[in-house]
Specification:
The chain is an alpha+beta fold and about 180 residues long. Helices cover about 40% and strands about 15% of the residues.
Amino acid sequence: MKKISRDSQKSKVYAWESSNLWDTVLEKTGKKKGYKWVPVTKPEFRLTECQCQDVVEQMVRWFYTANINGLVSPKDIPKVVFNNRGLASYLNPREQLIKVHRNHMNVYILAHEVAHLVTAGYEVGGAHGSLFMRHFIELLVRFAKLNLKELETSTKEARVKVAPRMQSRRVKYKKNRRSAAA
């Protein structure tokens, strides 16, 4: 019987990110294996602590005002905290925190974590599913000024599933011809 992974697309997403979004460097992990490839922000792309919090607030407010899927509101803005321990950056939804490693202070990492915030509890197939990827790509286009077509092409080549592009929930209503004639 085939075992189904809870987050079947996670390794594909991480591989796509490392080959398309940032340079990876060899960094000592302190574990038995010794080294691990991790993303480190080039100095010209690094954000300050204040800028990180501002970018997260702008991202959450953009989702709210664009009414993409109604999953977040301005009260859902997490606090960004920074650390030097470990190698990961992650979202802690219970405490409304995004923990960011000091080497990861960039728009790409923040977009990744905000996409988790927006899809938390709604994603089918794990935390890195197609809906997560759609939100992640929309954030990268909007806030990192990356090209939508290039991102979609590269995800397709990497066999990363991406949900279809969503429209805003604002609907234009057409006049009913029957009621107009009556």
